[in-house]
Amino acid sequence: MVLGEAPGPEEAHFLVALRRPDLVIVDVNLGTVSGLDVTWALTAEHPGLRVLLVSGDDAACDSARAAQCGACGFLPKDRLTSSDLVALVGVR
Questions:
Q1: Rounded CA gap, 37 and 1, in Å?
Q2: Residue from 46, 62, 78, 33 nearest 24 by CA
Q3: Domain ranges (residues) in the chain
Q4: Residue 23 CA to chain centroid, in angstroms?
Q5: Taking a C-beta distance cutoff of 8 angstroms, is the pair 38, 26 a contact?
Q6: 75 exposure class (CB count in 10 Å sphere: 0-12, 13-18, 19+)
Q7: DSSP track, the chain
Q8: What is the residue-level pLDDT of the chain in tens, covering all 92 positions?
Q9: Which residues contact 45 (CB under 8 A, 6 or more apart)?
Q10: 10-90 architecture in CATH?
Q11: Which of 80, 35, 31, 34 is nearest to 53 (CA)?
Q12: Please, what sign has the CA dihedral across residues 39, 30, 74, 64?
C-alpha cells in the first residue's frame, strides 16, 4: 500500500514522521536536491527506517553508495518489480 508521495524533502520528513512506513522509496535524481542527501537525513532522523534508492540512470548510484547514505539498497527503475517491494517490506 502506498502511504503517500512527497513533492520535496521537507514533505518527505513530515510524511515519514506521521505515517512511519515500512519502506521509503527515494529517487536519486530529485532535481534540486540529491536523493542521497535526502536518504542520509531520513535515516539519521529515523533510525531503522529502510530506504530503497532508485534511479533511471544506472550511473547515478550503486549499492555501495546507497549503503553509505543509509539506504537498504539500490535498484535501477527499469529493474524494480513488485516482487522486489514485497520482499523488502517483508524482510526486516
A1: 25
A2: 46
A3: 10-90
A4: 7
A5: yes
A6: buried
A7: ------SSHHHHHHHHHHH--S-EEEESB-SSSBHHHHHHHHHHHSTT--EEEEES-GGG--HHHHHHTT-SEEEEGGG--HHHHHHHHH--
A8: 567 888 888 899 999 999 999 889 998 888 888 899 999 999 999 999 999 988 887 666 767 888 899 998 888 888 878 887 777 766 55
A9: 13, 16, 17
A10: 3-Layer(aba) Sandwich (3.40)
A11: 35
A12: negative
Q: What is the pLDDT of residue 81?
A: 81
Residue type at 69?
C
Give how far the C-alpha of residue 14 lies from the chain's centroid of Cα atoms, to the nearest Å.
15
